[in-house]
Amino acid sequence: MYALDSEGEKGWSFETDGEIRSSPAIGDDGTVYFGTSTGKVYALDPNGTEKWNFTTGGSVSASPTISGDGTVYFGSHDNHVYAVDSEGEEKWNFETGGPVTSSLSLGYDGTIYAGSEDGNLYAIDSDGTEKWRFNANSPIKSSPAISISPLGSQGVNSVYVTTTDGKLHSLSLEGEKRWDYDIGAPIYSSPVISKNGTRYIGSEDGTLHAIADPHLIEDWHDLDEIRDDLGGNYFLVDDLDNQTDGYDELVDTEDGWDPIGDEDSQFTGTLKGVDKTSTLLHTYGTGDDLSLQLMDIEDDSEEFFEEDGDLARETSTITGLQIDRPSEDHVGLFGDLGENATVEDVTLQDVNVTGHSYVGGLAGESRGTVENVAVEGGEVHGEGDWETEYSVTGGLIGLNRGDVVGSYSTADVTGDYSNVGGLVGLNWGEIKGSYAAGDVEGSDFVGGLVGRSYDHGDYEPVIKGSYATGNVTGSFCVGGLVGDNKGIVENSYSEAKVNGDDRVGGLVGHNVGRINHTYAIGDVSGDSYVGGLVGYNHDVFLGPTGEIIDSFSLQGTAEDVVGASAGDMIGRVASAPEEDMQNIELYTADEFKEYDPLHECWDVTTVGAGESDLDHTWNIVDGETYPFLSWEDA
What is the C-alpha to C-alpha distance for residues 335 and 378, in angstroms, rounded to an integer? Predict the structure, then answer.
C-alpha cells in the first residue's frame, strides 16, 4: 500500500503478504482499511503504521465499507460477510452460498446489502441476522446501489443490483422485485443513479446504458395515454377490467377501444406486464433460451420459481376489450407495433374484436417482439372485402413481421376472406414456442395457428416448436397448423380437425416451403388434394420446391399422408397407426418396421407421466402419448 502526497511524492508504503486488488477505504479519523488476496483486512494509521489486521478464510478482493459508528464491513471469497469494530474485533459473521467479491452497500437504516456469486442479494441487519434474500439466478459481482428514486408518479426507496447474465434488477427495500431490464451483455459494474432517477450501467459489450423510469399503467386512462408517447416504456401494474376507471368512456362505447398506433404512427416502446408468480418461461429446443423474468411491483407479491417449463403463468391481465370497427384496418389493442416495439407478460381475456383487415386481439400488425402474451377466450373477426380478398386476421396478431415467442390464443377467429389463423393471420416473421386452441373459420389460406406463412421480400418466415388444437374450416389451402406455407415449419404439430374444399391438410394445406419433424393427428376432410399431413406439396416451376422431412400423420385421419406431391419427401414421411406414433422408435430408429429410414433423428427423449425434460425439443411417455414439446405441461 502506497501513500502519495499532493505533489505525487511518496509519503510512506506498507508491505503486505498478498496482492491488493481494490481501493482502500478511509475512516472519519483517517484510518486506512483494505483487503488482500491472502484473506487479510488491514487497518493503518494515517502515517502508515499498522493498527490491526483481521484474517478471513479467503481472498478479500473488494473495498471495505465503513459505518458511522466505525464498524468495518467486508465480504470474502470464503463465502462470508464480516463485521469488525474499530479495534479489529469481530462483531459477527454471516455465511452466504458463494464468494462475496464486491463491496457491500449500507442502507440508511443500517441494513447491509451483499451480493454473492451464488446469485443471491442478501439484506443483513446490523446485528448480523438475515432480513431477506433475493435470488437473481445469476452471479452478482458488483455492489448494489440504493436510492430514493421516482418510479412513475411514485417516490419509492429502491435497491438496484446487476448480474453477470446482463440484467438490472429493481427491488423494494423489503426484497420484492419491481422490474428488471435485460441489457443483453454481461455486467460486472455497479449501477449509478442520477438525481432524476436515471440508472447508468456499463456492460461488457462496451456500451454505457441509461435506463429511465417506466410509466405505470393502473387504469384504462393510463393505457390510453400510451398514444401520447408511442416510444415510452410502460408497466401494466394493475389488472384492467370493466370495473376499472376509464372503461365506460374508452371501451364500452359504440366503436369500442381506439387502437393505439397505426401504420403511420406505430408504437415503438415497451409494454410489460408483471409476473405475479415469478415463474420462469419455458425453454424451446436445446439451448435457445427464451427465459424471461419480470416480477410483481406490489409489495405483497409472493416470490417463487418453478423450472418445469410450464408456459402458463399469471401475468397482468386486460379483461373485456371491445372493438367494433368493421370498416377500419389495423385493429386490436394496438393498431401497429413498430420494429422496436416489445410487448411482454400481458394476457387479454374475453376479447370481442372486429375490424376490416389486419385484425388481432393484441395487434393488427406487428414488426416488433411479442413474448409471453396471451389472448384467452372471446372472438376476433376480420371482415375484409371483395376488392382485396384479404381479412388478415389472427387471434393474437393480424400480420406478423416480427417475433412471437411463448404466446398463445384460445379465442375463436373468423374472417370473411383470406389469411385467417388461430394465432396469426399472415406471418412474415418468426413464431416460436407458441400455440392456438380456438376454432378458426375463413375462406382461403386458413390455419389453426397461421393462415399463411409467406416469404415476402426480405422476410423469411419460421414456425418452430408450436402447435394448434382447434377446429379449422375453410375453402382453399386449409391446414391444421398452417393453411399455406412458403417458409419453415419444424418441430411442430397439429391436433386440429380440418375441413375444406381444395388443398386441405392435417398440418399444412399447401406447402412450397420446408416441413421438418412434424406430425398431425386430427381428422381431415375435403374435395381435392386432401392429406392427413399435407394437402398439396408443391414444386413451383422456376421457383421453390416443397420439402417434407421425417413427418407423420395418424393413420385413418385421411386416405393419404400427402394428398399430392410434386415436391420432395425426404426420409420417413408416413401415415402411422396410434401404436407406432406413440413409440419413440418411429422418431429415432433408423430401421423401424416397414418404414423408410429416417433422414435425421428427432430430438426426443422418454419421460415419465407428468414430467418434462427441457434438454430436448420433444418428450414422449413411450407407449402412452404422442410426442409433445418439452415446454408443454405434460
Answer: 19
Question: How far, in whole angstroms, is CA 354 from its chain's centroid?
Answer: 28
Total residues found in the chain within this entry? 634
* Pairwise pLDDT comparison (79 vs 209), residue with the higher score: 79
Strand ranges inside 306-443, DSSP E? 316-319, 322-325, 334-337, 342-355, 359-360, 363-366, 369-382, 390-394, 397-400, 403-405, 408-409, 412-415, 418-421, 424-427, 430-432, 435-436, 440-441
Alpha carbon dihedral 260, 262, 265, 270, in 10-degree steps, equals 40
The region, left, alpha or beta by phi > 0 then psi within -120 to 50, assigned to residue 183 is alpha
Q: Which set of grid coordinates corresponds to residue 507?
A: 398440418
3-state secondary structure of 417: coil
Percent of the chain with pLDDT over 70: 91
Please, what is the end-to-end C-alpha distance for the chain in angstroms? Answer: 61
**Reported confidence tier of residue 515, pLDDT bands at 50, 70, 90:** very high
Distance, CA of 382 to CA of 324 (rounded, Å):
10
Give the contacts of 203 (CB within 8 A, at least 6 positions apart): 166, 183, 184, 185, 186, 187, 189, 209
- Evaluate whether 216 touches 152 at the Cβ level (below 8 Å): yes
Pairing of strands 498-499, 472-473: parallel
Give 162's pLDDT tier (boundaries 50, 70, 90). Answer: very high
Across the strands, what pairs with 556? none
pTM, two decimals, is: 0.72
Q: Are 523 and 496 in contact (CB under 8 A)?
A: no
